[in-house]
Amino acid sequence: MTRTLGRSGIEVSAMGLGCWAIGGPVVWEDGRTMGWGQIDDNDSIAAIRRGLDSGVTFFDTADSYGAGHSERILGQALGKDRDRVVIATKFGWTFDDDGSRRSHGPSAAPEYVRSACEASLRRLGTDRIDLYQLHIGDLDLTAADAVAEVLDELLSKGLIRAYCWSTDDVPRGERWLGRPGYTAIQHNLNVFEDSPAMLDLCERENLASINRNPLAMGFLSGKYTKNTRITSDDDFRASGIEWVAVFDENGAPRAEWLAKLDAIREILSSNGRTLVQGALAWIWARSGQTVPIPGIKTAAQAEENAGAMQHGPLTAEQVAEIDSILGR
């Protein structure tokens, strides 16, 4: 099961694997240490290899994930198989690349974009980035124009093959239309949080819709109940950050989301799917432009995610039934 990254013509597996978690915790500007909990690099490498063996050819990371660590681990894990896959990485959030794992603020300065690309190439151990993504979702439009000029320059030099903006704002998603290198928008999408306007834009302009948060921060795995808590001090899902919708400040799943999941559980798990696979199947059914990128920490997660491709999308009738149940 494959899809095309928009206008680029680059073919990828219908889902990719997200590599935020394997970067490990980072010290944020406010002093908090945040990530997806502790990681083991051997587990991360095994997860990437399992995904590759299971038919995944698209891997999404960012230079700021683990302050460079995710890119290094991805490059190490792919090794001689680099040419079998499509690598997407992001730029825009600065950090100390010295092992201290300290993150700083955003930057879109042209000289920074050039140096960030060169640094990502070194960490990934490759001579080109297949999809280079602006990571500042709310960047001022004028500044974004200057970024696009640099991206066109990198494209002409063969350092990148195509580019993308990671944003949930439709006017920003429209800003680079007409530029030949612009081929995708990365945005939030899962069965609970639809994005019709962004999907309409991607379909209308033949842009790939790369879907972050396809499993609602792991909630759609079904492993969280009213009695479970995320207790790790460095797991951002228990931080009370405003954009963490499904968990409260104590790391408890919110009751209203549990009720929603119970209401659609049977549809998502139809035809032998796991809940995870059903959640990915909904995304594929939602639009032919979509490429979900569920995150991984273990080989078992990579295998379950990749297994969704064997089942394919939900039916249009199932999507309509879910919409009815969720009241949209």
Q: How is the secondary structure organized here?
A:
Layout: E1 2-4, E2 11-13, E3 17-18, E4 26-27, E5 33-34, H1 41-53, E6 58-60, H2 69-78, E7 86-91, E8 93-95, E9 103-106, H3 110-124, E10 131-134, H4 141-156, E11 163-166, H5 170-175, E12 182-188, H6 196-205, E13 208-212, H7 255-268, H8 275-286, E14 290-292, H9 299-311, H10 316-326
Parallel strand pairs: 3-6, 6-7, 7-10, 10-11, 11-12, 12-13, 13-14
Antiparallel strand pairs: 1-2, 4-5, 8-9
What report would you give on this structure?
The chain has 10 helices and 14 strands. It is α/β, with parallel strands linked by helices and 328 residues long. It has a single domain (2-215, 275-313), classed as TIM Barrel (Alpha-Beta Barrel), CATH 3.20.20.100. It is globular and about 50 Å long. It has an 8-stranded parallel β-sheet with strand order 3-6-7-10-11-12-13-14.
